[in-house]
Amino acid sequence: MIEIKDVTKRYGETVVLDGVSLTIAPGGVTSVIGANDAGKSTLLSVVSRLVPADGGTVTVDGMDVATTPGDRLARRLAVLRQDNHLSVRLTVRELVAFGRFPHSGGRLTAADRDLVEEAIDHFELGDLADRHLDQPSGGQWQRAHVAMVLCQDTDYVLLDEPLNNLDMRHSAQMMRRLRRMADDYGKTVVMVVHDVNFASCHSDTIVAMKDGSVVAQGTTVEMMTPEVLNAVYDLDIDVHEIGGHRIGVYFS
Amino acid sequence: MTPSPPSPAPAPVSPASPATARTSPPAAPRGLSPAQTAARHRERRVLAVLALLAVAAVAGFCLIGLTGDWEYALGLRTRKIATMIVVGTAVACSSVLFQTVTGNRVLTPGVMGFDQLFVLIQTLIVFLFGALTLSSADPRLLFAGQVAAMVLFAGALYRLLFGRGGRDLYVLVLAGVVFGTLFGSLSSLASRLINPNDFVVLQDSLFAGFNQVDPDLLALSALLVAAAAVWTARLAPRLDVVALGRDHALNLGVHHARVVNRVLVVVAVLVSVSTALVGPVTFLGLLVASLARQLTGTFRHGTVLPAAALLAVTVLVGGQLVLERVFTMDTALSVIINFAGGVYFIALLIRESRR
Ligand SMILES: Nc1ncnc2c1ncn2[C@@H]1O[C@H](COP(=O)(O)OP(=O)(O)O)[C@@H](O)[C@H]1O
Ligand SMILES: [Mg+2]
């Protein structure tokens, strides 16, 4: 269980997180939605101890993320940020294999390798796995980064806009993979999603943020209503039931 | 420990993905793929070739043209070679480590003016205490004082330049040039203000070159560099993670800030060693660090660090050999290294700007 209590974060005068309290139950897929600059990325970074909070506490299965040794946390929680710039030149396979570092240090075992190979196959990275990629396409790089984080094989997986740069096919594939992580392996997946319909179709719970606060939280059915979405996005959104999913329509 | 599920590995891959029959040999060493194993073999071959080159340069330097009182000459040459090995290793390691913690492949302590900072510290110490007091002091104690000051000020300079988030590469290059020049000017100003006798002493210690290095200082330096090398080798896997950047490093459970701070102390000590022994060699580090990565085709520290050190030794010893024995010139090596390194630096900058 992830428990966020009264977390605040300021940058200078700007309050980015304004006393956020939130509990994320173990298991299932939780999507965090909200307009640009709502504080979604900052919240994810605080939860994953990449950014220190100015106030409040975050615990993951009772471990305070601010004080728990990093290597211990790295075997329980994995995170991928929104922008991932690498200044070193390495192959996709090397990057994905880094996901095993918390478990094996620098020395991969045969079991580690099987995990790495499976992730590479799954994300269709096999063809370029051993090439040095100076300028890989955004989509390939994004898939490689997600593959790395999934190889970390942690109970909690936090992803900030995992669909960044992905085309439709790879987006759908990514979502199915995340779904399977939760359904078949009992992982807790928390992700920031830009597209509210992806959130609707693939998550169990939706958390909505606005101006540094959580403004609504509930099951997908509860959250995918014109009233809630209107309050979150300040935009008129029709919600239709299509193929068993609630789809928001806001293109007109 | 919570009952973590066996991991997604055994799960069948979704039917959509092509049935890529994995052609892995039954007993792959240490969980590496065939391509990775091949790459490791290549790296090892490159390292072997570089080691051979370094040994050849050292042997050539020792033996070519050895006549007359050969025992005496060999002793002289051995000390010179020891100096070059210590300096080469220090410069190579400090540059690779600096690039890792700053997350770029263009900047080195030399480019950022760190060695000029050490010269300034040396000059200021003479300026403040006078050469007479210093000449009666234990040179090793004096060196220890200089290194301590260097660790302190280099740390402050690093915070000033790299603290608080990412900065534009060109701003950093410019800052490095400005600081290097500033420290250089301050040193020459201070050296003009001190009395002429002191100046001679200072001059001697600043421009020792490879010839007249104090044996005590050399032994202490060798010890420091060896200790730094052992420490770095043990840290190599974590350095690989740090090279991915702060966020990845934290996610993978590496205490990023702690590693960076320790690496900076080691870098400051290594820069002190090389500068105290032979003065600033600004672009050598950049040259060998880049070349080492290119030749070995990896960024992993376990490979890049020894490769860079071997390259540095080869360049220094081989260059000195060619200059002294072939062209019978003296003390021009650093000029040539800085010229080649400077051209390479500009080429790197142009390439980065095209990205
Ligand atoms: N490192 C930072 N320094 C200053 N302001 C920041 C920093 N990171 C985020 N912010 C600000 O915090 C606000 C929330 O950002 P973010 O959490 O990235 O929002 P979201 O992910 O919801 O778009 C934005 O206004 C952004 O400008
Ligand atoms: Mg964001």
Automatic annotation (TrEMBL), chain A:
Residues 2-236 form the ABC transporter domain. Its main location: membrane. This is Iron complex transport system ATP-binding protein. It is found in: Cell membrane. Keywords: ATP-binding, Cell membrane, Ion transport, Iron, Iron transport, Membrane, Nucleotide-binding, Transport. GO terms for molecular function: ATP binding; ATP hydrolysis activity. One of its GO terms (biological process) is iron ion transport. Coiled coil: none annotated. It is a peripheral membrane protein. GO terms for cellular component: plasma membrane. InterPro entries: AAA+_ATPase, ABC_transporter-like_ATP-bd, P-loop_NTPase, Siderophore_ABC-ATPase. SUPFAM superfamilies: P-loop containing nucleoside triphosphate hydrolases. It comes from the Bacteria.
